[in-house]
């Protein structure tokens, strides 16, 4: 007795074969589901915090309370980086590591978590008026460096989701694309932060643009991961 092209039993068999070929279980083990759930939650929060940071930065660039907007955007981006680092950590704890990528993953976790804490701390201090003309561009450099080193680890997260057809290959490609965007955004954040420290009168503008660029990259990264992992629990 054969299968029709639309037979759900055939699709289930094919999916099971693909899962097992990729090293996953079907149905997923509790450990695999916990990993995917943690990544889905972290990427959703990263997306939300990135959107908040981008909106606040745009408001500041429009010259509406730019000082407060720059500090607030820095804090939001710090939380987004913490979510991104937590996502990497969830992947790290429950994955079999390849020697050639293990150091890259560890570096991505460390820089994004540290960069997130530093961004929050610098944003809060600036918000309270502690050397804001220095701390805001320094924060841009810090979060830029976090993206620069954390971006290359982004594709490793995509492999925590089992493949399940063309649409998941598309979202995996989106995750890999977001990795490159994060690296370039990190470089831009560092350059803009340095310009903010050296160009008098442009501190807030450079810091706001840097935060907008970084937030945009985090929105793309968080959105790509949310699209890939969110369907696992639909």
Give structural notes.
With 234 residues, the protein is mainly α. The protein has one domain (24-233). Helix content is 80%, strand content 0%. The protein is built from 8 helices and no strands. It has helices spanning 8-21, 30-61, 66-93, 99-127, 132-150, 154-158, 166-198, 203-230. Helix 3 (66-93) runs parallel beside helix 5 (132-150), helix 3 (66-93) packs parallel to helix 8 and helix 7 (166-198) packs antiparallel against helix 8 (203-230). It is elongated and about 55 Å long. The protein starts with 7 loop residues before the first helix and ends with a helix.
Q: Can I get a quick summary?
A:
The chain has helices at residues 8-21, 30-61, 66-93, 99-127, 132-150, 154-158, 166-198, 203-230. The protein is an all-alpha fold.
- Secondary-structure element sequence? HHHHHHHH
Beta-strand content estimate: under 5%
Count of structural domains? 1
On the 0-100 scale, what is the average pLDDT?
Answer: 75
The gyration radius over C-alpha positions equals 20 Å
Helix percentage: over 70%
Main beta sheet strand tally, sense and closure: none
Count of individual helical segments: 8
| End-to-end distance | 32 Å
Model regions low in confidence, pLDDT < 50 over at least 5 residues: 1-25, 96-100, 164-168
Q: Total strand count, please?
A: 0
User: What is the overall silhouette?
Assistant: elongated
Structural class: mainly alpha
